[in-house]
Amino acid sequence: MSATTRPPADQPSCPLAESGERLLPNELRAWMVLLAATGGVEQRMRTAVKETLGVSHDEFLILCLLAERPRTGLRMTQVADLLGRPKTRLTYQIACLQRAGLVNRRSVCGDKRGVEVALTDKARELLRETSALLAGTVRQALADSMGSEQRAALCALVPDATLPDGS
């Protein structure tokens, strides 16, 4: 492996890949690269989100999901489905966000069991103020966690992707 194709110092190289023997198809290799890269991003984001917004990473994901929706919000069941989270865990996270003044909950008209959740103006302003910084954290974490071999594997899976180094 040459110096230009070395993974970052904290990223172990893959002995199987170095030997030239490929057991997995490119799509599975790329998927594993993507999982490793997103794991690194998530670790950095946990810290950045806590310091910047004062919420957990999972709560941040809820805020981001709601930020991309109309002001009317989403049903709790939709949020749980879209994030792949258990409804009981989501109820706790929404309660934390509500106590922080970042979301509102209300009953859905005509459905006494339905609950809808939406961002508050405070949350919208906070996201406006911090989103560029957090996006930079994502870009830097991806750039730091992906060497040229990993970028090539990911590009093979998503040929039209533009990665943090511009490739």
Automatic annotation (TrEMBL):
Top-level taxonomic group: Bacteria
Gene Ontology molecular function: DNA-binding transcription factor activity
Domain HTH marR-type: 25-163
UniProt cross-references to InterPro entries, sorted A to Z: ArsR-like_HTH, HTH_MarR-typ, MarR/SlyA-like, WH-like_DNA-bd_sf, WH_DNA-bd_sf
An annotated GO BP: response to stress
Protein name, per record: MarR family transcriptional regulator
Source organism of the structure: Streptomyces monashensis
